Each structure stands twice: as C-alpha cells, then as structure tokens.
Amino acid sequence: MQVKQMRKKFSKLDKMEMSIWECCELLNEVVDESDPDLDEPQIQHLLQSAEAIRKDYPDQDWLHLTALIHDLGKVLLLPKFGGLPQWAVVDEYINTY
C-alpha cells in the first residue's frame, strides 16, 4: 500500500473512539518482536517508560505523558485497526553495536 493510500485509510479516525487508557490496554495484545530486550506486552513497556521518566523528571508532567503514549500507534498491528505487518508499524533496526 502506498503512502497516499495509507494516509487516506488511516487519517479518517473512524475505527473507534476511546480514552488514552483504553488504547493503552489494547497493547496487552501486542509484543514488539523488533525489540530483543522486551518479551512482554507493550503496555508494560509504556508503564515502565512513564515511571522511569517520572522518577528522573518529577516536575515535567508533559514528559510523563509522552513516555506513556509514545508507542500507542502499535495498535495498528491489531486486526480491528488494520492488522498491519510489524515492519510497517515499528521502525525495525539492525543492532550494529
């Protein structure tokens, strides 16, 4: 699917209406196969990220929220949101270190 087709399909925002937390909970069904350090659902990663940022930057509420929502786009992996392949949603990389 080309970029213009993807934009047309997904920019409608007509799949579902939900709260941020409801969207986070959907990530209980997603494990990021491209991250060798994680073998748990993405919601755990979101919560761990937000908590780590909160500890390091306690007065930066906007940053806590950013850490919490940074991977919400991974709901596009789920069938009801398009069921896109992982490579199309996650920036896969090769560790060259």
From TrEMBL:
One of its GO terms (cellular component) is cytoplasm. It catalyses: myo-inositol + O2 = D-glucuronate + H2O + H(+). Its EC number is 1.13.99.1. Fe cation binds at H45, H70, D71. Binds 2 iron ions per subunit. Pathway: Polyol metabolism; myo-inositol degradation into D-glucuronate; D-glucuronate from myo-inositol: step 1/1. It is found in: Cytoplasm. Pfam families: MIOX. GO terms for molecular function: inositol oxygenase activity; iron ion binding. Its cofactor is Fe cation. It is an enzyme of class 1 (oxidoreductase). Keywords: Ascorbate biosynthesis, Cytoplasm, Iron, Metal-binding, Oxidoreductase. One of its GO terms (biological process) is L-ascorbic acid biosynthetic process. PANTHER family: INOSITOL OXYGENASE 2, MYOINOSITOL OXYGENASE. Belongs to the myo-inositol oxygenase family. This is Inositol oxygenase. It comes from Salvia splendens (Scarlet sage).
